[in-house]
Amino acid sequence: MRRLAVTDVVLAQVHPADYPLPVFDDPDDDATPPPENARLIAGRLALQDGLVLVARERGAGAPALLLNALEWIAAIGGDAAFRRLVVALAIVGDRPVGGALCAQDLRTRLSALGAVVVTPTILLDRTAILDDATGRLARDHGASLDAGLDALLDHARALGRQG
């Protein structure tokens, strides 16, 4: 957030805990409306030009909470939320291979929903994250962060969903 705050972008932070969702169970029944939080997340995404998606790699894949949210958004017509949304992936992992596999999984899912996922992926070693109130990186990942964020900004400005 600090690196983007010095640019001309308007920032908003969203955490899955702010939008709890039930487990997605492929609702075919039109009588059961989707959860309001799924609509709220989709609505917020539809208003954005770009997204930095920070995910913690779990077993060489994306976390279940994130996948559940993507399922709900897709089920309620996620094409409007994701079409031409520029996404930079920042993966926090224990091993580079696990982080890369998690990024590949998310890239495939998001691309299928219509998002433009930029390269390079920002891969962060879990041990590089400080467990304190500042949230600062213990080791410098500046080059990786800068490359990923520059790609996001360049693509979002070029595609500009909002005008």
TrEMBL record:
Q: Where is the NADPH-dependent FMN reductase-like domain positioned along the sequence? A: 11-123
Q: What is the official name of this protein in its record?
A: NAD(P)H-dependent FMN reductase
Under Gene Ontology molecular function, one entry of this record is:
oxidoreductase activity
What Pfam family is a match, any one? Answer: FMN_red
Which InterPro entries does the UniProt entry name for this protein? Flavoprotein-like_sf, FMN_Rdtase-like_dom
